[in-house]
Each structure stands twice: as structure tokens, then as C-alpha cells.
Amino acid sequence: MTETTGTVQLVRDGTFARLGPHGDIDGAGETAPDGLFTHDARHLSRWRLRVDGDAPVTLRPAREKTGSTAGCVLTPRTTREAPASYTVFRGQTVTAGTLTEDLRLVNNLPEPVTAELELTVDADFADLFELRADRRTYARPGAEHTAEPTPDGVRFGYRRDEWHARTDVECRPAPDAVRETPEGGTARTLRWRLALEPHGQAMLRLTVRARPHTPAPPVPRTAPDAGRAPAPGTDDLDRAFEQGMADLDLLTIHATGVDGEDLAVPAAGVPWFLTLFGRDALLTSYFLLPYRPEAAAATLGALAATQGRRHDAFSGEQPGRIVHEIRHGELAHFRQVPYGRYYGTVDATPLFLVLLHAHHETTGDRATAVRLEEHARRAVDWMLTDGGLQKHGYLVYMPDPGGLANQNWKDSPGSICSTDGTPAEGPVAVSEVQGYAYDALLRTARLAREVWDDEPYARRLDDLAAGLRDRFLRDFWMPGPEFPALALDGSGRQADALGSDAGHLLWSGILDDERARTVGRRLLRPDFFSGWAVRTLASGQPPYHPLSYHRGSAWPHDNALIALGLARYGLGDEVRALAGGLAAAAARCGYRLPEVLAGYDRADHPSPVPYPHSCSPQAWAAATPAALRTALGQV
After folding, report:
1. Which distant-in-sequence residues (6+ apart) come within 8 Å of 357 by Cβ?
2. What value does the mean pLDDT take over residues 380-391?
3. At what angle do helices 235-250 and 624-632 cross, to 10 degrees?
4. Which of 255, 270, 357, 428 can bridge 265 by disulfide, Cβ–Cβ 3.0-4.6 Å?
5. Per-residue pLDDT tens for 131-164?
6. Per-residue pLDDT tens for 19-28?
7. What are phi and psi of 379, to 5 degrees?
8. DSSP letters of 126-192?
């Protein structure tokens, strides 16, 4: 449940629903719209129950039972002197493309009762991109909405040229009547008169089936690897780990591999990102390697299958580049947004190489590394060419006016800046990505040496990595604060804001031991460490804002990488402090870490302050407790 709004969010197998506190849907929402969604479209925009002609009284608001089921208790409106003659127990479940609702009506009286129910239903088929904060309007020429009664309910349809989607509402028992609503449009009101015997009950089952234009095959389900001993943790961290694993099960979606095989991969999060994101899936799978290595193999296969093959300025596709985001909605289909397959990320490609070697290193499995050798070589080629290593000496990106302004993990406008808040101008070389590239080159060299039997290629990659490290220590290190710059702009000037990205450099190993330990200890000072987690930007700098998405908030996955980096350099006290803060934050969030927390200090706030637009559940936040356990086991 979302504490600030009282909404309930259910998710399973690539489908999610956001419901109000009494189980209704009205298409609105404070930070995200209500509805039933699959494949980036809303298949149910209205679902309003009325009992005996009025809105029911909520005895117990909707409450999540599991990540995909919820229930509430309702009654007709009554007075204290005349208590409700019957009670409605409302249960709702989300599965692949389906919302199922069970209404159980219980007669509280020793005589017969007739219950009158009305359910107003509509499906607007809005694309998820139309429902974001800016509420941008997109042209839909020739679009047609329909609503037709069926023997057991109603069918909603949507058509635009070759694009066709449908929502079927099936009822048992069938409604007594299906009528248009006074306001017109496609909304329909379904009505029942249900007879209840003395102290008896009646059941009503409602099934909503979303039929998107491009339905996905079922998500392949396999039992996770349970043969690995758990790493050290704490009671709170262990509970957060268990919740995270359960949430990752809910966020698992279907993808297709390089040979057309069905794969199960982690989606990024709900409500906005229930799809495959390269960076998110790669880091999530890396965190899970000691516990669920099958996630890494699936993620690598899915991303290899969508690896760039040509140049397309609209989507950012380039040969060898790993995809950032895949969308299945109407606007992506008609190329009204570039996100059908959007490649606007500078870090997914080196992270693909990091995970490929780490999977081999962790499991001893050579097959995946052999199968994806050519994809790995193409990824290296991208880093050297379009990625910018040969021309600029670093991996760089240009802000995309039609897509993302920044193409690293801090991808919001203005997030890559100097201490005075001035944004870096392109081509931008962000610090943490150079660390990823360094690690990717070294790891791929090991694969070339140990698996592909190509020693000359291995030596070439080792030399490239050594040169990158030398340049990085020369160009990024700031002697005054003894800290790396956040980025270099297109003129080679340092964007000198102090950011959490420096912790990723410990994870990748690009810093020497002395600098790494200096940075690691610096990240645990109070301007960075809130007591819950390390902030994205140290407080006290002009750009800092505790409610900024990337300029003062605190992200669990960011801290997971920092913790793994601290452990790499033996900073045990710092690892334990960071893991303890995040475990405490999880305990105050029902053991489900959100995507992002506000940057307010723990000393001033006994519970972490929520970030207002945070996804929850969210994959790399759900996998963070796994990374923390791994880090604790290394110190």
C-alpha cells in the first residue's frame, strides 16, 4: 500500500493495478494514475462499486495481502440505530493480463435480504506516457473506442489503424442489466439484484481480461537456486532480503532470447517501469548473482537479443549498443515517442560486459560466455567507436532533446552539474561510467584469455583499461576536496559537485587504494550519509535539495554499489554503518525498500521521509538487501 495516498498497488507477470482504498478505480491519482495496466496501456480506467444506490462504507480499507492480492470490507450506508443488513467482502487479484474480483455478500439478519449492486466500468486505453506528470497530449488520428454488451458482461475495444486492443469484463452471475451512463462515452453500468437467505451469502465473480495489441507469452517460472548458503545479515536485513526476493518474483516479466527462447527477466518497477530496462536489469541481476544466478543469464540473453545493429538517431540505436528501455504501447508503436527500443544510455553496454564475466566467475558456467562472445565483442566495439573511447578518451553522451537529457543513471535534467548548479554541457563524460568501462575492459580481457582463447585480444583490452585508468586519475581527481569530479564537460572542465557516483568507482576498482579509502570514508560523513543512506549529492552545496530526484535524495541501489565498493577496499566499519542504515529504513517501510528516499537526516526524522514519486516495488531496490548481505560477507 502507498502510505501517502491509501492506494493499493498489485503486480504480477507484467500486469499491475492501482486501486483506491475501497477497491475502486477512478482513473486519477496523486503521483500515478489508478487503473489496470499491461504493455504500457490502461485497460481499465473506471471500476466503481455502488451498494444499494450509494457509495459503500469502508469498514476495512483495501490492504495488500500478497504483492498480487488485496482485500477490503464494505457495507451499505446505515445509521448506528439500524446497522447494515449485509456486509461485502471484496477481494482482488492480479495475474497476467487479468484482474479478478470476488465479492462475497453476507446477510447479517435472520430474514431474507436483497442486495442491489451497481458497477460502473470503463476502459480508456490511455498510453502510460500520456499519464505521466506532464500529462502531455498526443495525437491519435482515427482512433475509435467502442463498448458492447456481451452475454456475461461488456467488451471495450480500441482501434487505430492496425493497432487494436480490447478489454473483456466477464461476470458470474451475469448482470441483470448493462446500461450507458448519464455522462455518455463508453462507460457502462452493470447491475445485479442478489437474494440473500437468512444469515446466508451470495458470491459474485468479476473477471477483467486485458487483450493488448501485442500480447506477451507466459512468463517462464523456475524454482530459484536455493543451494547457496546465506551471507551474513541482521534480523531487519534478513527480512528485507526476503521481501525483496518476493518482490522480484512479482516484477518478473517475459523476454525473448537470442535464439527466440522464452526468458524470465526483472522489470524495473511499478507503476511507470514495468518493462525491461538495460541498466536496471543488469545491476539487479549482478546483486542477485550469489543467490539467483539464473537472473543474470536471462538478462544477458534478452539484452543480447535486442543489441543495436544500425544507426537510428530517433531511438539512439547504434551497432553494439545495449538497449536502455523497451516499450510495447501505442505511442511507441507509431514512433510518437522514441522508447519502443530506446538506446539512450551510456552505461548499459559496459555493464553488460561486467555482468557477462561476473556470471562466469560466480557460476563457473562457460556456456553463456561462449554463446554471447560475438555480442560482447560488438559491445566493446561500441565503447571504442560511438561510445567515444577512441575519440574522447572516455565514454561520453550528448543530451537527447527527444529523449533523456542525461544518459547515466542520474538521468534527470540538471543532475550532472557543478557546485554552483550549472549543468554540464556535452559531450559529457560522467565519472562512474568510466569506472564501469575500466572494469568491463578488464573483465572482457579475462574472458578472452580464459574462455575464448584469444590472448592478443586480451592484451589489447588490458592496455586500453590501463590507459583509461591513467587518464581518469589525471583528469577527474580534484586535489582540493580529495574527491573525483562528477563529470567532465565537452571542454574537459570538471563538473565539481560532490556526488555519490564516486562510490561506484570503488566498486569498479578504477581508483588506487589510497584514493579509494579516502573517498569511501568521505561518503560516510554527515553531509553525504543521512543516517539512512548516502545522498546522491552532499548537502550544503547550492544544488542540493532533499526532494530532488538526483540532487539530494538517497537511492538504495546506489548505496548497494557503494557498499560493495567499500567492501572491496576493506572498509568494514563503513559497510556496517551503511547496511545498518538501510536495514533500519527498510524496517520502517514494511521491509520493502522503495526506489528512492528523501535526503532528510535521520537525526531529525525518526522514519525515512518518502520521496513523492518513488516506484515501489522496484527491482534494484528489491535486490539491494542481497548486495548488502554480500558486502557484509566480504568484510
Report:
1. 369, 443, 444, 446, 447
2. 98
3. 140
4. 255
5. 986 678 899 999 999 999 999 999 999 999 999 9
6. 999 999 998 7
7. -65, -40
8. -BGGGGSTT------TT-EEEEEEETTEEEEEEEETTEEEEEEEEEESPPSEEEE-TT-TT-EEEEE
